[in-house]
Fold NUDIX hydrolase.
Amino acid sequence: MTEIRAAGGVAWRPGPGGVEVCLVHRPRYGDWSLPKGKLEPAEHPLVAAVREVAEETDVRAVPQVRLPSARYRSEGRPKVVDYWSMRAVANGGFQPGTEVDDVRWLPADEAVRLVSYPHDAEVLGAFAALPPVTATVLLVRHGHAGARGTWSGPDTGRPLDAEGWAQARALAELVALVRPARLLSASARRCVQTLDPAAAALDLPIEVCGDLDEPRPGQQRDERSLALAGRLVELARAGGQVAVCSQGRVIPGALERLTGRVGADFTTPKGGGWLLAFAHETLLAAERL
């Protein structure tokens, strides 16, 4: 039986007494729950989560940390709902409708008592246990650029191919979700091109940074991974949101250093990436896109 896929979020904002989270009331069910909804065909869960929060609450939010997924049965079918914590950055003004007729902002402990379902309470509990997130980094690997052996020029000049450009356009939608203030790229042409669609959509320049490069002849991979990890920490220290495009030979080593999980599988496919959440210089979470 095909499972139902949905996504949503714990949208939060600073309140007079501390952090407040957003709940919605659905008149059809008479319940209080976290905002969520079904994925559109071929839609990325993170895109769906941000979209559904906006549609149900009129809150625009920046995703930060992946929370536990909820699994239960709905209308006789298995259902999986993926959740992210999201910092509210804009509110267009909620208008009651047929799907959601009320929205409440509450401290997390009050929200746990109000929600109608145990799985929502578990998600809220996981959110409440998180340290405050001070920086979000979207770390991606460049898109497909053909085989090294088929390119006659310097490897740094190898461009994206048709598949790579399709990946770059798909990544632009994910990059936009984190509302980055900066876009940084390794110096290879394919890395800069991977951020081109995002740069055009966000009207941001692409900053080329050698600390994001993979090793060149005579350089050690560990040395370059350490440089990438150091630059990511530096960006986290500055706070806010940023998107970074790097290369497959250094991303795994950098994530090993930041997480302390030596030997973990941080292999990143071309056009793939990670959502990194930091509390100052400490990496709180690294979730695959």
